[in-house]
Write a structure and sequence with these properties.
heterodimer, A: 83 residues, mainly alpha, 3 helices, 82% helix, B: 271 residues, Rhopdopsin 7-helix transmembrane proteins, 9 helices, 81% helix
Chain lengths: 83, 271
């Protein structure tokens, strides 16, 4: 799974809640801050999901945000392990 | 405001009809409908009731949103402030209601203006807290330069539109308190528009989503509210009372949109 594939999967799962544009720009901004380049380690993936969950909290509350992040995690798992 | 299922559109149909009735009153005041059935005292009473209902609903929904968010959620105080701001407007409208319902009059200035003015700092604070919450959560709200540019641009555009409106308002007669209040409302609206412009940038990025729907309704409501205040001041100063129906239509629409936005957010939090 490349970072680009992971970003696409994350955006697809988050878009219904915060929109395609916000999901993509937030994910890419967090990737940049976390130093995630072409590939994403498991630790980086968890850190990214934590940051995205914090952003979703604002709109959805903690429980719903956690369920969306679980959806994202499943989508990433379906893509295969980090490399 | 918007429920699920077949009745979900009903509140919007009611809001649309109400706005159409008031706009129709302004456009065709001497038609048979408005001369015999929907007479000015009845429409003023209807406007008073609709405003109270939408304001109370908006405040309650916003407070319920605050209640649904965790204690450490940075958006929680923003929903509380929004709820209080709308509640303060409700209190002002509640003060006017007896005069509008019984005497078909809207006294100005009155004790209601204390609550209407108090609503502004609460609403402005709510929007600033929302912006800070989005920034803290790491959402892209633009660089400092971009934000300064948006605020400066919105301020200049608002001033460009508002100054020609405010000039006759400032030159109008009346007591000092009347003149201060007539100018204060549009000026406070201009201040309110500045954080709204920043939130609009965020709302555009949220378009096509559940959160985007919430912000489209809320921002739409507050922009219409600002316009209604400015037109009210303008018409008041020029003595153009025959245009009041359009102001009522704008206020009803504004309060309905705000209530609808808060309800959408509550539904999102409950989902």
């Amino acid at each position: 799974m490349t970072t680009s594939e992971a970003v696409d999967a994350i955006v697809k799962a988050m878009a219904p809640y915060i929109g395609d544009t916000m999901a993509r720009s937030a994910t890419e901004a967090h990737c940049q801050k976390l130093g995630i380049a072409a590939a994403m380690s498991a630790d980086q993936r968890e850190a990214l999901l934590g940051k995205l969950g914090g952003g979703l909290n604002i709109f959805l509350g903690r429980d719903k945000s956690a369920s969306v992040i679980a959806e994202v995690r499943n989508a990433l798992a379906a893509l295969g392990g980090p490399r | 405001m918007i429920g699920n299922g077949r009745w979900g559109a009903l509140p919007w149909v009611v809001l649309g009809l109400a706005v159409a009735v008031f706009a129709g009153w302004g456009a065709f005041p001497s038609s048979a409908l408005y001369a015999r059935l929907l007479t000015p005292p009845r429409l003023l009473a209807l406007a008073a009731v609709l405003k109270l209902v939408y304001l109370l609903a908006g405040s309650s929904f916003a407070f319920a949103c605050r209640d649904r968010l965790e204690a450490d959620n940075p958006a929680r105080p923003a929903w509380l402030l929004l709820s209080q701001g709308v509640l303060s407007t409700f209190a002002g409208q509640r003060c006017l209601a007896p005069f509008q319902l019984v005497h078909a009059q809207t006294p100005f200035p009155s004790v209601a203006d204390i609550y209407f003015v108090l609503a502004y700092p609460l609403l402005i604070a709510a929007f600033l807290v929302f912006l800070n919450a989005y920034r803290e959560a790491g959402l892209p709200i633009g660089s400092l330069t971009e934000r300064v540019g948006i605020v400066a641009g919105a301020g200049a555009a608002a001033a460009f539109v508002a100054l020609p409106i405010l000039s006759p308002v400032a030159a109008t007669g009346g007591t000092l308190l009347e003149r201060i209040l007539t100018i204060a409302y549009p000026v406070l609206d201009l201040v309110l528009l500045l954080p709204l412009a920043l939130l609009l940038r965020i709302a555009l990025r949220l378009r096509g989503s559940h959160a985007g729907d919430v912000w489209a309704l809320l921002l739409g409501g507050f922009v219409v509210l600002c316009m209604a205040d400015m037109f009210y001041a303008y018409f008041q100063s020029l003595g153009e009372a025959h245009l009041d129906p359009f102001v009522h239509a704008a206020y009803v629409l504004a309060y309905g949109l705000v209530a609808g936005g808060a309800h959408r957010q509550l539904r999102l939090l409950k989902s």
